[in-house]
Amino acid sequence: VSAGRRFQDPLIVRPARASEARDLTALAVRSKAHWGYPETLLALWHSDLALTAELITEESVHVAERAGETVGVVAVSVDGGIAEIEGLWVEPSAMGDGVGRVLFTKAVETARGLGARTLVIVADPNAEKFYLRMGARRTGTVSSRPAGRVLPRLELSL
Ligand SMILES: CC(C)(COP(=O)(O)OP(=O)(O)OC[C@H]1O[C@@H](n2cnc3c(N)ncnc32)[C@H](O)[C@@H]1OP(=O)(O)O)[C@@H](O)C(=O)NCCC(=O)NCCS
Fold first, then answer.
1. Of 3 and 118, the one with more pLDDT
2. Residue 4 in this model has a pLDDT that exceeds 70
3. What is the band of 6 on the pLDDT scale with cuts at 50, 70, 90?
4. From 17's CA, which of 7, 52, 56, 65 has a CA 20 to 30 Å away?
5. Order of all β-strands in the sheet with 11-15
6. Does ligand 1 lie within 6 Å of residue 105's CB atom?
7. Which of 32, 49, 89, 130 to mutate to test the pocket of ligand 1 (most atoms within 8 A of CB)?
8. What is the per-residue pLDDT across 19-62, written as a single tens digit (0 to 9) for each?
């Protein structure tokens, strides 16, 4: 831990507001773009990345804030006993600093609180190791867009 990090402002996690939809969508796009995907793919995926006001209202969406800046967001949906992470996005400048872990923990708490027994994640291939580190196990793959792209599916028992 560097001296700079030790004196960092604390990380606050709070529910997202519908009025933040545009800013949170932009954060999701910047976060996804961090893996180096071309603009054409980011455009293809835009509707999947969008955190709309409806989604913020209907699902459980939380943001992480540090020194008044939004540094990450997580969205969880629950259907019966199954919860799914619909998105977990950390601002590129804040990556590697524990924000993802804090938001994942929030997703687990949220899913448990809503009665889910299993948390499902269909991950970006670059993020799979993060979810494995968080204790999830790989259960298979899911076809995605564009044709031929395959995503790892992971699960955590709650
Ligand atoms: C994946 C992501 C959420 C991780 O968030 P983060 O804030 O950088 O992760 P943290 O700093 O909380 O890391 C927690 C642990 O996971 C590990 N980890 C994080 N990302 C990792 C990666 N890509 N590969 C391997 N390990 C990783 C860290 O080393 C750390 O391990 P430690 O506890 O041993 O120190 C973040 O990189 C991100 O938003 N990526 C782009 C968007 C994306 O793909 N999101 C997921 C969509 S499914």
1. 118
2. no
3. low
4. 7
5. 11-15, 60-66, 69-79, 82-90, 118-122, 150-157, 137-143
6. no
7. 130
8. 999 999 999 999 999 999 999 999 999 999 999 999 999 999 99
Q: If you measure from the C-alpha of residue 116 to the centroid of ligand 1, how many angstroms do you get, rounded to a whole number? A: 24
Q: For atom 3 of ligand 1, which residue has the closest CA? A: 100
Ligand 1 centre distance from Cα of residue 96 (Å): 6
User: Over pLDDT 90: what percentage of the chain?
Assistant: 94
* Rounded Cα–Cα distance for residues 141 and 73 (Å): 24
Q: With a 6 A CB cut-off, is 11 part of the ligand 1 pocket? A: no
The protein residue whose alpha carbon is closest to atom 34 in ligand 1 is 133
In the predicted structure, residue 150 carries a pLDDT above the cut 60:
yes
> What tokens were used for 95?
């990556």
Phi, psi of 39 (to 5 degrees): -55, -35
